[in-house]
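ok here's Tctex1 domain containing 1:
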Amino acid sequence: MLGTTRIKETTKTKDFVSASSGMAESVCTEDAFARFVSLENTYQLEPYTRFGVRAATVILEDVLTGYLLEEKYEAQRAAELSLTMCTVIKERVKELRIPRFKIVVLVYISQPKDQGMQISSRCLWDATTDTFTSHSFRNSSLLAVGSIYAVYHE
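and the structure:
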């Protein structure tokens, strides 16, 4: 019976759901608990606190500079660095604990060889609550542009 589990007993608690099968395995996930919880709407249309643009900009500058200061441009390495930096930036911005904002992080890395790079983005935007910050970094062999978008989620 590999891959199949018959659930005999289900126990709900505040933090997790534990389900025991006939093979003495147990499954504990917060996602399973979330299926049983129904939340009321708050009808909160505006955030209680504003998104910290300056703090996010400092994080963006710090990560771009820290990762790319001594880096030489290589196409494969640039793709890996871009993904890594996006993850690090997003986690550090989430540590600011500003509730109800969706965070989107983009990092572009290019080689500056007598060419231009134009970056544009479009999205549905509420100018009173949504915001963004951007920073560019350049060394002798690469150019990087990072952006953080904070979109309020009702």
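+1. Residues 75-94 form the longest helix (20 residues).
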